[in-house]
Design the sequence.
């Protein structure tokens, strides 16, 4: 019997702080064909529920060559402190997807923990 696993997404659990600037750099290790407009991250209360927050495109993503020179292999996700302040603390799930020529692929997924903060921006 043969099997095939098309789910190549990597699990990455994230913990961040409400009201702090969120900045995460991901190195995918090889050249990619995407640009910032192809990327989207959604956060939801649990799997199967509608997203409560969506971050997409050049407002939140930047793409660069990684330290090995692989084209578009490094993705930086940045959400401002003000936008993070507007999020509700708690435990969520998220995923990061690209859409290129109608092909949707999930690259990273996991839990997204937002810890409460005392000082506001």
Sequence:
């Amino acid at each position: 019997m043969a099997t095939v696993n098309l789910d190549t997404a990597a699990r990455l659990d994230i913990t961040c702080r409400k009201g702090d600037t969120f900045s995460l750099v991901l190195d995918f290790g090889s050249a990619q064909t995407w640009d910032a407009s192809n990327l989207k991250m959604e956060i939801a209360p649990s799997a199967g529920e509608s997203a409560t927050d969506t971050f997409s495109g050049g407002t939140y993503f930047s793409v660069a060559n990684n330290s090995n020179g692989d084209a578009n292999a490094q993705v930086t996700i940045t959400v401002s402190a003000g936008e993070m302040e507007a999020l509700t603390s708690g435990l969520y799930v998220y995923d990061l997807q690209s859409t290129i020529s109608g092909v949707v692929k999930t690259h990273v997924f996991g839990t997204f923990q937002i810890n409460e903060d005392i000082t506001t921006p």
The chain has one domain: 10-115. The chain has a mean pLDDT of 94.
